[in-house]
Design brief:
Keywords: Chaperone, Coiled coil, Cytoplasm, Stress response. InterPro entries: GrpE, GrpE_CC, GrpE_head. With 183 residues, the chain is an alpha+beta fold. The protein has a domain of 55 residues: Nucleotide Exchange Factor Grpe, Chain A, domain 2, CATH 2.30.22.10. It has three helices and six strands; from the N terminus they run αααββββββ. The strands form two sheets. The protein has a three-stranded antiparallel beta sheet. Strands 2-6-3 form a three-stranded mixed beta sheet, with no helix packed on it.
């Protein structure tokens, strides 16, 4: 019986020892779990902050796009304002010439002044006439309305300009209408 009591005491001690080990392990795991929960809460708070910041940035970007569209539309709407003002000056000059000219010479000189003014306005804005005099036909600048043989002009050269053409900053606005020599 003494052996049995010793065995029981040893079993109780072993059980107590295992119990204490398990209890210690459980406490350790509880601490780990609470640390993981804290870290998770911190990460959730950071995620919420980032999400909130992302929403604000997205709203700011949408507002920027709307403002940019509004500014672009305003710019397009009034882009030609300066040239229109200058054309209106020419228009008013025509009106003054017509109202104050009683004879042909006065009318002609007034119209010539206005013509020169318009030419200067167009040149200032970057509009230039396409040259045609003694020029070789260029399909990127000229439109051939007529083709004819001519002994005085080389083959492929312009004989006569029928209507002027214009460029605006190196882009053709209106092609020159020409008569071309073809032999």
């Amino acid at each position: 019986m003494v052996d049995e009591n010793k065995n029981e005491e040893n079993n109780d001690e072993d059980f107590q020892e295992k119990y204490n080990e398990l209890l210690s392990e459980i406490n350790s795991k509880d601490e780990e779990l609470s640390k993981v929960k804290e870290d998770l809460e911190k990460q959730n708070k950071k995620n919420d902050e980032y999400f909130s910041q992302l929403q604000r940035l997205q709203a700011d970007f949408e507002n920027f796009k709307k403002m940019n569209d509004k500014q672009r539309n305003e710019l397009i709407k009034f882009a030609n304002e300066n040239i229109i003002k200058e054309i209106l000056d020419g228009y008013e000059d025509f009106e003054r010439v017509l109202n104050n000219s009683n004879e042909y010479k006065t009318l002609r000189s007034g119209v010539e002044l206005i013509h020169d003014k318009f030419r200067d306005i167009l040149a200032k804005e970057g509009i230039e006439e396409i040259p045609t005099n003694c020029e070789k036909f260029d399909p990127f600048k000229h439109e051939a309305l007529m083709v004819e043989a001519n002994d005085d002009v080389e083959n492929g050269y312009i004989i006569e300009e029928l209507m002027k053409g214009y460029t605006y900053k190196d882009k053709v606005l209106k092609y020159s209408k020409v008569r071309v020599c073809k032999k």
